[in-house]
Amino acid sequence: MTTFIMKGKYSAESVKKISKGRTVDAIKIIKQSRGKLIAAYAIMGEDDLLFIAEFPGVAEAIKASINLNKKLGISFATLPALKVDEFDKVAGGK
After folding, report:
1. Residue 16 CB neighbours (<10 A)
2. Which domains does the chain have, with CATH numbers?
3. I need a labelling partner for 54 at 20 to 30 A (CA). Which of 17, 33, 77, 83 fits?
4. Rounded Cα–Cα distance for residues 88 and 5 (Å)
5. Distance in Å from the first CA to the final CA of the chain
6. Beta carbons within 10 angstroms of residue 63's beta carbon
7. Nearest in space to 38 (alpha carbons), one of 9, 4, 83, 68
8. What angle do CA 45, 85, 61 make, to 5 degrees?
9. Residue 83 per-residue DSSP state
């Protein structure tokens, strides 16, 4: 499984529909794309939400991102992430 950071932004319309039920729906959408939500945070700044999720690959992460936007009105920038020790190996560190 690959880790992805998902930065979410509410639309003006989606803010009106914030609810615990929508969070449950988001988890279901991620699961339908063969993913697992590791953590979810409400944040302040350029983005409104920060999800840490795992997916088998990029295609599944993109599918979840698109479906979250379609079904919940929240747009996500979805970024692959490596733990620092894995990054060090990839980058040639010892």
Report:
1. 9
2. 2-90 (3.30.70.260)
3. 17
4. 19
5. 24
6. 17
7. 4
8. 55
9. -
Q: Tens digits of per-residue pLDDT, 2-41?
A: 999 999 999 888 888 888 888 899 999 999 999 999 999 9
- Hey, is 26 helix, strand or coil? helix
Task: Note the pTM of the prediction, 2 decimals.
Answer: 0.87
C-alpha distances (whole Å) from 42 to each of 20, 22, 50, 78, 82 are 12, 13, 6, 16, 22
Helices in the chain by DSSP H: which ranges?
12-15, 20-32, 58-72, 84-90
pLDDT tens column, 74-83:
999 999 999 8
